[in-house]
Design goal:
- Helix 2 crosses helix 3 and helix 4 runs parallel beside helix 8.
- The chain contains nine helices and two strands.
- It is 62% helix and 3% strand.
- The protein is globular.
- The protein folds into two domains: 67 residues, Winged helix-like DNA-binding domain superfamily/Winged helix DNA-binding domain (Arc Repressor Mutant, subunit A); 138 residues, Four Helix Bundle (Hemerythrin (Met), subunit A), CATH 1.20.120.
- The protein has 236 residues and is mainly alpha-helical.
- It comes from Pseudomonas orientalis.
- Keywords: DNA-binding, Transcription, Transcription regulation.
């Protein structure tokens, strides 16, 4: 028999702080809070998230430890420039290093896309759709489309609901899409315009699987995309 007037279950401050960390991290990684920009005030964060000042301070400490922000005493807390953040330093400028990067992404993104298919929101799906539309428009202008390509994959990581995926992808940065960084004498006959068009078709297959919330199809589409990218670039 249920006990009447039972006291409400109190959420631990650590869980509350992590919720604030996740929300602010997402805003930073999606560019809603840009490098050099000041975070909302402590009072504003308290009101936005319905938590105490102690929880907010714990969350800010976690963000500092992750290298996303720095606090300037008497001024406020600011988003760090990407190059100032502690993280991975990868140099991808040869065909061999491109292959290595794509192998790394296979290990990471195949699981991420399956989680994204299960957990994505309608709003996140809409952001992915916009990223793909921007990518196609960029291809039409014969641009490299690295930023648009990276944004689509970053949004997939965000949709997992696991900030570790999105943080790792953010640390990879443009090294994640390395095709334009390879030295000219190693590019061979790679036709980047054609590669971009093929990648666009593969992106659509990934998106459609996420839209249907089909994790198995999403995994298969991501495996196909990344292995094809690896093999096309190396001329296999």
């Amino acid at each position: 028999m249920p006990i009447e007037n039972a006291p409400p279950v109190r959420r631990r401050s650590t869980n509350l702080a992590q919720g604030v960390v996740d929300a602010l991290t997402q805003r930073i990684l999606l560019g809603q809070l840009k490098p050099g920009e000041k975070l909302p005030s402590e009072s504003t964060i308290v009101l936005e998230h319905g938590v105490s000042r102690t929880v907010v301070r714990e969350a800010i400490s976690k963000l500092q430890a992750s290298g996303l922000v720095e606090t300037r005493h008497g001024i406020g807390t600011f988003v760090l420039e990407q190059h100032a953040r502690q993280g991975l330093r990868l140099h991808v400028d040869t065909v061999a290093s491109v292959r290595n990067m794509l192998e790394l992404r296979l290990g990471l993104e195949v699981q991420a896309v399956a989680l994204a298919a299960l957990r994505r929101t309608d709003a996140q799906l809409a952001h992915m759709r916009q990223a793909l539309d921007d990518y196609r428009a960029c291809l039409a202008n014969n641009d490299s489309c690295v930023e648009e390509d990276k944004r689509f994959h970053q949004l997939i990581a965000e949709a997992t609901g696991n900030t570790f995926f999105s943080e790792i992808m953010q640390h990879l940065g443009t090294a994640m899409i390395p095709r334009t960084q390879v030295k000219a004498d190693e590019r061979g006959g790679a036709d980047f315009a054609k590669l971009g068009q093929l990648a666009s078709l593969e992106h659509e297959a990934i998106f459609n699987a996420i839209k249907r919330q089909d994790p198995d199809a999403a995994r298969a589409a991501m495996v196909l995309h990344l292995t094809n990218s690896r093999d096309r670039f190396s001329g296999e």
